[in-house]
Write a structure and sequence with these properties.
This protein is an alpha/beta fold. It has two domains: 2-159, NAD(P)-binding Rossmann-like Domain (Rossmann fold, 3-Layer(aba) Sandwich); 166-295, N-(1-d-carboxylethyl)-l-norvaline Dehydrogenase, domain 2. The chain contains 14 helices and eight strands. It has an eight-stranded mixed sheet, sandwiched between helices. α8 packs across α11 (230-246). It is elongated and about 65 Å long.
Length: 296
Amino acid sequence: MKIHFLGIGKMGLPMAMHLAGAGHALTVNDPSEGRLELAIAQGLTVVKDGAAGIGAADVVFSSLPNDSALLAVGVTVAGSARSGTVFVDTSTVSPSASAKVALQLAVQGIEYVRVAVSGNNKMAEDAQLTVLASGPRSAYTRVLPLLEALGPNHFYLGDAEQARLMKLVVNLMIAQTSAMLAEALTLGQKGGLEWQDMWKVLTVSAVASPIVKAKAMQLENRDFTPTFTVVQMIKDLDLILDEAVAHSMTLRQTAMTQALMHSAVNQGFGQDDYASIIQVLEREVGLGPAIKDRFD
């Protein structure tokens, strides 16, 4: 199958590599010369003319940073893809922006599968993403063998924007887990519990979810290297809170977590892992320097 992949960032590049590794004829393009150089180094075929790549493809994939990028790419795909092409977008975007793209593509006879992937770049590299999909069932069935190259778990959720909303639901819980950990770990430290002892207990307790265990592996030695940055989480929380407004809801806890994320940016943690809100609370109660000294 001929595939063109738009957007080969930290998530897009490993996904594209898995598709190429499955034996498909794949071309890629990206606005960043640095990302294109990485793609070439990995043996992928780069085309500078994205429209030509789209026009030659049976399936077009994209992995994009935000609503604006998806809307722009949607126009390009609608103007360049052949009727009958399937467009698979894997970005985390708002349901409303995705719905606008769906209307543009339908006019041109292009089928649109919304795919939200749950997992970080390491999981993308290991082909361990959870794939959430929605759109026309026939188009989903057609591209399912391709999606199986991205990870072992696949969920078809409906014929429209359900995958977009499900991704926001998942990310809401991920963000709230970081807030829960921030308060719990800070309370424990103030009461005299050792940081590493708390992680050992938490990972075998009733709250030992996969995300808590993953964070334990990263944070036990206070490694805040980003799997997903504070700034990226703010973007997703904006989408979540906007969606709540669209459904006449108030997400009070989520709004408080968003405020913590903004505090993290103000304190210089914006490009660190989103779990850096732990450090925000530590600073508020006077723990920050002492903790840092113990692990330096």
